[in-house]
């Protein structure tokens, strides 16, 4: 009786992983967001290796010049080339936000998983501190910390990531707790996987989507907070160029050299728009109800 | 109702305590002698001793915290290092300036944003919706301090309609006071419009899908009544939560705007205190803003059932 069991061939075949999908035009917000983001990245990357002029070179003979062929976006109060400084500023802003968001995501995911995994008094203790940190509004915590650390690039990164970590912890822990009781997690336990394996293999990957959405908004927050702190003189200290401290320096020359205040603001707004649009596009994909 | 309020109040006590602990810790984290920090470099040995004793620095840290907390609860936040003013009246005075601007602008923003968001949700995916969402996203992406500078340039310098630098309080001259705060209010209103409109639209989309809206339509109510009487109230509840969060964030974020418009508000006071290493004033500002933030969010929780009857007190 070696006759193979009569099984319909299509049952043996694995189901096609995904029906081949026709390429669709990406939604407008993703398109514009990605374009702006690409522009920003090119500007920052180019600024690392090449700028039209030396961004720190003083030239008091060419102070406060309106945009010309030699200085495409004009010069500032020390005769420094505004375009070159904007390119360096793009690099600073992106670097600060990348470091801040990575730190907050890594620390927040770790603590969130820990709280959701161990539960009990670890969870309660962590969440008590977390909620108290969340009770500090916006950049207030960062302001308070900057008072202790003093203005510096890594000081901002530390202060902002400490301010943003609690929201990551909250999102990750919430996801973990809601997934713990789902059938597929139960199934993993039933077939004998350890708690830790189940956690890392089945629960943690499900936190990626919500954390990604949060991370996209956090990039925007970090850029805005960095420029606001630099604007207040509590961020990256001069002579290093950041969009925020360039805007602050333009304040006294608002009547005579208005372009000084115009271009850094355009850069900040462009960066924020890029991250907001990308965030929207991401959210639309994950929650299709909000869009078409 | 009363029980709910007292419960919520009791729940915010541990939060407030933890916040105070953190603010206390921030000052203790500053490297160096707190007494020296409090009195400044010019202090002589004797007054340093007195300050150390009054701060209880010879006591263990938990005891110090209790001493400090007792002083705070009795309204004694110490004196400014730079001007020797009592901290509490100083921060309350400056707080009024900021709070007025923030409240008026959030109110204006909500009055425009909530109907706009509802209309956009009602006509989802139409040209109107696209226009509202695009404008809101654009406004959301403009930093307040830059918008402030642009408005200052347009209306203060080019047109010369409004003063560029300075501040006059209401008690001195109401008309002049208005000319100084109109631009900050317009700036904040525009900036907050973005976030509130998007939130109002998102929650209205959720609500318009619900069965009770279908029911309201089925029983023959006009579209106008469905939208303004039924959808608006329920979709406003999540927006209210956002407005509460925004109020708190504005109070801490207003420092940049007060710098642009040279207003004597709490944000500017805090930044100046950081520059001058005036820790008692900084401590006072941190405490005041976070306490107000917690209380505003408590108030939002209490107002919630007015808009969403499913939430019971």
Automatic annotation (TrEMBL), chain A:
<feature type="transmembrane region" description="Helical">
    <location>
        <begin position="253"/>
        <end position="275"/>
    </location>
</feature>
<keyword id="KW-0813">Transport</keyword>
<feature type="transmembrane region" description="Helical">
    <location>
        <begin position="129"/>
        <end position="149"/>
    </location>
</feature>
<keyword id="KW-1133">Transmembrane helix</keyword>
<keyword id="KW-1003">Cell membrane</keyword>
<feature type="transmembrane region" description="Helical">
    <location>
        <begin position="207"/>
        <end position="233"/>
    </location>
</feature>
<dbReference type="GO" id="GO:0005886">
    <property type="term" value="C:plasma membrane"/>
</dbReference>
<keyword id="KW-0472">Membrane</keyword>
<feature type="transmembrane region" description="Helical">
    <location>
        <begin position="94"/>
        <end position="117"/>
    </location>
</feature>
<keyword id="KW-0812">Transmembrane</keyword>
<feature type="transmembrane region" description="Helical">
    <location>
        <begin position="28"/>
        <end position="50"/>
    </location>
</feature>
<dbReference type="InterPro" id="IPR035906">
    <property type="entry name" value="MetI-like_sf"/>
</dbReference>
<dbReference type="InterPro" id="IPR050366">
    <property type="entry name" value="BP-dependent_transpt_permease"/>
</dbReference>
<dbReference type="Pfam" id="PF00528">
    <property type="entry name" value="BPD_transp_1"/>
</dbReference>
<feature type="domain" description="ABC transmembrane type-1">
    <location>
        <begin position="90"/>
        <end position="279"/>
    </location>
</feature>
<comment type="similarity">
    <text>Belongs to the binding-protein-dependent transport system permease family.</text>
</comment>
<dbReference type="GO" id="GO:0055085">
    <property type="term" value="P:transmembrane transport"/>
</dbReference>
<protein>
    <submittedName>
        <fullName>Peptide ABC transporter permease</fullName>
    </submittedName>
</protein>
<dbReference type="InterPro" id="IPR000515">
    <property type="entry name" value="MetI-like"/>
</dbReference>
From TrEMBL, chain B:
<feature type="transmembrane region" description="Helical">
    <location>
        <begin position="97"/>
        <end position="120"/>
    </location>
</feature>
<feature type="transmembrane region" description="Helical">
    <location>
        <begin position="175"/>
        <end position="196"/>
    </location>
</feature>
<protein>
    <submittedName>
        <fullName>Peptide ABC transporter</fullName>
    </submittedName>
</protein>
<feature type="domain" description="ABC transmembrane type-1">
    <location>
        <begin position="95"/>
        <end position="304"/>
    </location>
</feature>
<keyword id="KW-1133">Transmembrane helix</keyword>
<comment type="similarity">
    <text>Belongs to the binding-protein-dependent transport system permease family. OppBC subfamily.</text>
</comment>
<feature type="transmembrane region" description="Helical">
    <location>
        <begin position="239"/>
        <end position="261"/>
    </location>
</feature>
<dbReference type="GO" id="GO:0005886">
    <property type="term" value="C:plasma membrane"/>
</dbReference>
<keyword id="KW-0812">Transmembrane</keyword>
<keyword id="KW-1003">Cell membrane</keyword>
<keyword id="KW-0813">Transport</keyword>
<dbReference type="Pfam" id="PF19300">
    <property type="entry name" value="BPD_transp_1_N"/>
</dbReference>
<feature type="transmembrane region" description="Helical">
    <location>
        <begin position="132"/>
        <end position="155"/>
    </location>
</feature>
<keyword id="KW-0472">Membrane</keyword>
<dbReference type="InterPro" id="IPR035906">
    <property type="entry name" value="MetI-like_sf"/>
</dbReference>
<dbReference type="GO" id="GO:0055085">
    <property type="term" value="P:transmembrane transport"/>
</dbReference>
<dbReference type="Pfam" id="PF00528">
    <property type="entry name" value="BPD_transp_1"/>
</dbReference>
<feature type="transmembrane region" description="Helical">
    <location>
        <begin position="281"/>
        <end position="304"/>
    </location>
</feature>
<dbReference type="InterPro" id="IPR045621">
    <property type="entry name" value="BPD_transp_1_N"/>
</dbReference>
<dbReference type="InterPro" id="IPR000515">
    <property type="entry name" value="MetI-like"/>
</dbReference>
């Amino acid at each position: 009786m070696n006759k193979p069991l009569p099984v319909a061939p299509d049952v043996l075949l694995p189901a096609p992983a995904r029906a081949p999908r026709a390429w669709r035009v990406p939604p407008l917000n993703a398109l514009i967001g990605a374009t702006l983001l690409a522009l920003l990245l090119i500007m920052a990357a180019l600024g690392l290796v090449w700028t039209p002029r030396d961004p720190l070179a003083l030239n008091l003979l060419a102070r406060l010049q309106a945009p010309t062929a030699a200085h495409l976006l004009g010069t500032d109060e020390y005769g420094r080339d505004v375009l070159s400084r904007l390119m360096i500023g793009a690099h600073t802003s992106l670097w600060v936000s990348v470091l801040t968001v990575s730190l907050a995501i890594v620390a927040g995911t770790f603590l969130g998983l820990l709280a959701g995994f161990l539960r009990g008094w670890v969870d309660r203790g962590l969440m008590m501190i977390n909620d108290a940190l969340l009770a500090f509004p916006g950049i207030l915590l960062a302001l308070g910390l900057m008072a202790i650390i003093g203005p510096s690039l890594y000081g901002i990164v530390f202060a902002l990531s400490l301010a943003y970590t609690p929201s990551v912890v909250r999102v990750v822990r919430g996801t973990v707790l809601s997934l713990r009781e789902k059938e597929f997690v139960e199934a993993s336990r039933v077939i004998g996987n350890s708690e830790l394996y189940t956690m890392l293999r089945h629960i943690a990957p499900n936190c990626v989507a919500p954390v990604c959405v949060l991370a996209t908004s956090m990039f925007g927050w970090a850029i805005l907070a960095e420029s606001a702190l630099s604007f207040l003189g509590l961020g990256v200290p001069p002579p290093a160029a950041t969009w925020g401290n360039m805007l602050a320096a333009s304040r006294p020359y608002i009547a005579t050299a208005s372009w000084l205040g115009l271009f850094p603001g355009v850069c900040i707004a462009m960066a924020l728009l890029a991250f907001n649009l990308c965030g929207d596009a991401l959210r639309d994909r994950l929650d299709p109800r909000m869009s078409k | 109702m009363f029980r709910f309020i007292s419960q919520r109040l009791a729940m915010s006590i541990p939060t407030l305590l933890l916040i105070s602990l953190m603010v206390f810790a921030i000052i203790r984290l500053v490297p160096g002698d707190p007494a020296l920090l409090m009195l400044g470099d010019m202090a002589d040995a004797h007054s340093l001793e007195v300050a150390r004793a009054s701060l209880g620095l010879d006591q263990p840290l938990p005891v110090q915290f209790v001493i400090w907390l007792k002083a705070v609860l009795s309204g004694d936040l110490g004196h400014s290092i730079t001007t020797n003013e009592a901290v509490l009246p100083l921060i309350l005075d400056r707080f009024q300036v900021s709070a007025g601007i923030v409240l008026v602008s959030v109110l204006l923003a909500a009055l425009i944003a909530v109907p706009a968001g509802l209309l956009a949700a009602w006509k989802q995916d139409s040209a109107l919706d696209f226009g509202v969402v695009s404008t809101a996203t654009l406004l959301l992406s403009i930093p307040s301090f830059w918008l402030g500078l642009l408005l200052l340039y347009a209306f203060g310098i080019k047109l010369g309609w409004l003063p560029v630098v300075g501040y006059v309080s209401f008690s001195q001259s109401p008309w002049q006071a208005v000319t100084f705060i109109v631009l900050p209010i317009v700036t904040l209103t525009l900036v907050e419009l973005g976030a509130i409109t998007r939130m109002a639209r998102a929650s209205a989309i959720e609500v318009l899908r619900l069965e009770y809206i279908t029911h309201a339509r089925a029983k023959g109510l006009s579209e106008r009544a469905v939208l303004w009487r039924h959808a608006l109230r329920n979709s406003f509840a999540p927006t209210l939560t956002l407005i509460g969060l925004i109020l708190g964030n504005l109070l801490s974020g207003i420092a940049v705007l007060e710098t642009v418009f040279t207003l004597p508000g709490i944000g500017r006071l805090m930044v100046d205190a950081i520059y001058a290493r005036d820790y008692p004033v900084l401590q006072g500002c941190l405490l005041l803003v976070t306490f107000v933030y917690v209380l505003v969010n408590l108030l939002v929780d209490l107002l919630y059932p007015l808009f969403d009857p499913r939430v019971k007190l």
